[in-house]
Design a protein that fits this description.
It is a single chain. The protein is built from twelve helices and eleven strands. It is α/β, with parallel strands linked by helices. The chain has two domains: 252 residues, 3-Layer(aba) Sandwich (Aspartate Aminotransferase, domain 2), CATH 3.40.640; 90 residues, Aspartate Aminotransferase, domain 1. A seven-stranded mixed sheet has the order 1-7-6-5-4-2-3, with helices on both faces. Strands 8-9-11-10 form a four-stranded antiparallel sheet, with helices on one face. Strand 8 and strand 9 form a beta hairpin. Bound molecules: pyridoxal-5'-phosphate. The site of pyridoxal-5'-phosphate has 12 residues, from helix 4. Pyridoxal-5'-phosphate binds next to helix 4.
Length: 350
């Protein structure tokens, strides 16, 4: 089988056979010529957003293709990476038949998305020090395990997985390997995006929600073999990325200097917070982090969570995750916010 045949063999047969909805405007090339648009029943009076958005987001994808050193055909855009993950599951997993592999403690949306789609999940826990259990992953594989989700840096633990371990999984897994790089700007040397051309089963997911500072806008991206992207395009809603989002992301792509500065500052703040955490007696452990948050082990996470809430600070209680008893997940904020956090922690009884 060549790469294309292999991808089609993994995909859901009904999606391979699907004839997607064709919007009026995608049936011909608009080009640069001014046209009178009487095809989509819009209000004709211009207000900047009275027209439907480009269903394939070509202008934005061209700009992203340059930035990511990929082809336009290797890029899919969704309404946040949550939506991207959902489209992948819809395109590749048959409800009631196929399975997804999750690696707890892991990002909670993978399970939610699988449950919504009627996809059984197989869990292969990370090792005690939160590394990938490659033998365990190999052991659960079968012809129905269509997809595995690897967030790196991982949420909630914060660590990146070793590149050679991720490579071994990609090379050994008979199905899609989704490497979710939501926090990759904080660990740019750990990205696997440059492996896309080499591995037809690799899907890299990134987002504008974290370091890029546009969580309210909702833009997630998948980078993969064009055949995978083609299947995702078939299942997406026709006009899934609105005009305002496309325009704002174009602008943000011109502001990468600012984002790098902010990432640098967040990393400096993170170092400072780490020192502070180490001096607080009821913080028992700070796990190594490659992201913009820390997983910390407390003496009593419930108590400390409530005490922080009382002091007006919201953090994430991660203690229900596998092997995360008594942990809290704390995002690095602005210098003022971090100071407030440190003052609050210091004010709490031992
Ligand atoms: C690992 C991981 N993937 C994806 C997401 C979702 O990101 P988005 O805002 O792009 O849907 C998050 C958000 O917390 C995350 O931690």
């Amino acid at each position: 089988m060549n790469d294309k045949e292999q991808i089609l063999a993994w995909a859901r047969p009904e999606i391979v056979a699907l004839k997607p909805y064709a919007s009026a405007r995608s049936e011909f090339k608009l080009g640069d010529r001014e046209m009178i648009l009487l095809d989509a029943n819009e209000n004709p009076f211009n207000n900047g957003i009275n027209r439907y958005p480009d269903p394939m987001q070509l202008k934005l994808k061209k700009r992203l293709a340059e930035a990511k050193h990929l082809a336009v055909e290797q890029i899919f855009l969704g309404n946040g990476s949550d939506d991207v993950l959902n489209q992948l599951m819809i395109a590749f997993c048959t409800p009631g038949k196929d399975k997804a592999v999750l690696l707890p403690p892991t990002f909670g949306m993978y399970q939610v998305c699988a449950s919504i789609n009627g996809i059984e999940t197989l869990e292969v826990p990370l090792t005690a020090d939160f590394r990938l259990d490659i033998a365990g992953i190999n052991a659960v594989q079968s012809s129905s395990t269509k997809i595995i989700f690897i967030p790196s840096p991982n949420n909630p633990t914060g660590n990146c997985f070793a590149l050679e371990d991720i490579k071994r999984i990609i090379e050994g897994f008979d199905g899609l390997v989704v490497v979710d790089e939501a926090y990759v700007e904080f660990a740019i040397d750990k990205s696997v995006i440059s492996w896309i051309d080499e591995y037809p089963n690799l899907v890299v997911v990134q987002t504008f929600s974290k370091a890029q500072g546009l969580a309210g806008l909702r833009l997630g991206m998948a980078f993969a073999h064009p055949e995978i992207i083609g299947l995702m395009n078939k299942v997406k809603a026709p006009y899934n990325i609105n005009v305002l989002t496309q325009n704002e992301v174009m602008r943000r792509l011109e502001e990468q200097g600012l984002i790098q500065q902010q990432v640098h500052q967040i990393k400096q703040e993170k170092e400072q917070l780490l020192l502070e955490f180490k001096s607080i007696a009821f913080i028992k452990k700070v796990f190594p982090s490659d992201a913009n948050f820390f997983l910390v082990k407390m003496d009593d996470s419930k108590r400390r969570y409530n005490e922080l809430i009382d002091r007006g600070i919201v953090i994430r209680d991660s203690s229900k995750n596998l092997n995360c008893a008594n942990t809290l997940r704390i995002t690095v904020g602005t210098p003022d916010e971090n100071n407030a956090l440190v003052i609050a922690l210091r004010s709490m009884d031992k």
